[in-house]
Design goal:
With 244 residues, this protein is mostly beta strands. 7% of the residues lie in helices and 39% in strands. It has one domain (7-239). The strands form four sheets. Strands 9, 10, 11, 13, 14 and 15 form a six-stranded antiparallel beta sheet that branches. Strands 1, 2, 7, 8 and 12 form a five-stranded antiparallel beta sheet that branches. The protein has a two-stranded antiparallel ribbon with strand order 3-4.
Length: 244
């Protein structure tokens, strides 16, 4: 499966190193054993907060949908977010603004979508991982899933990317719903450990990340994230780094 995240910007801005980018449709596989380590709280961010096109927050213009740039979002906070008519591929070049065929309204504004704040504490001990997510200003009553993944990168470009549901690989432990004020929490224990991000100065190596998917169709999709753009929106993501 392919989750959407901006690896180069994510690594540089969230983790202080050059990095990759996130998920793609691949057969889920068990991660290799990794040494115990604890991560600082992984702060999640939207594409806009990283200075990128807002990949999954589509807005309408002239009857079609577009991905807003960070500059445009300042004047579009009241614009409604839309679902695309068909599943929409992720653009790793961050240049394809649109247009896309218009589906249904998602039920919230771009300002609400970009106001989200969340962090995930991650610990790997005894071969098992624990994830504790805390979120605020999420979409009120929104249905979410948490994903964990690794992207192999070469000179800042993603060459291989795999993501799995946090916890059970069938997606039975990674779903939660925000409350009416947009607050939410999720605790996942006894999950497979994932390796820490390790990349050289040129952006070659492995980037580990966590990603938060919002499901505007009111359902989750088990081991798969669902149709991107059309129903599944990667609202936030962050890079997993070992604590010094």
């Amino acid at each position: 499966m392919r989750l959407r995240a901006a690896a180069l910007a994510a690594s540089a801005l969230l983790a202080g190193c050059v990095g990759g980018a996130p998920p793609a449709a691949q057969t889920p596989s068990a991660p290799a054993p990794v040494p115990p380590f604890a991560a600082e709280a992984v702060v999640l961010a939207t594409h806009t907060q990283l200075g990128l096109l807002e990949m999954d927050g589509y807005v309408e213009r002239a009857g079609l949908l577009w991905r807003p740039t960070p500059v445009e979002t300042a004047n579009l906070s009241a614009a409604m977010v839309w679902n695309t008519a068909q599943p929409t591929e992720y653009d790793y070049t961050y240049t394809h603004v649109g247009p896309f065929a218009k589906g249904t309204q998602a039920g919230f504004t771009l300002g609400q979508y970009l106001a989200a704040r969340a962090a995930v504490a991650y610990v790997c001990q005894g071969g098992k991982a624990t994830y504790d997510l805390s979120g605020a200003q999420l979409v009120p009553n929104g249905l979410y899933t948490l994903w964990v993944g690794q992207a192999r990168t070469e000179k800042g470009l993603v060459v291989n990317d795999t993501a799995l549901p946090a916890g059970a690989t069938d997606g039975t432990e990674n779903a939660f719903r925000a409350d009416a004020q947009g607050a939410a929490g999720l605790h996942v224990a006894d999950a497979p450990c994932q390796a820490s991000t390790v990349q050289d100065a040129e952006g070659t190596g492995v980037m580990s990340y966590v990603a938060l998917a919002l499901h505007t169709d009111g359902r989750t999709w088990g081991a798969e994230p669902g149709p991107f753009g059309n129903a599944t929106h990667i609202q936030m993501f962050g890079v997993v780094q070992a604590k010094a």
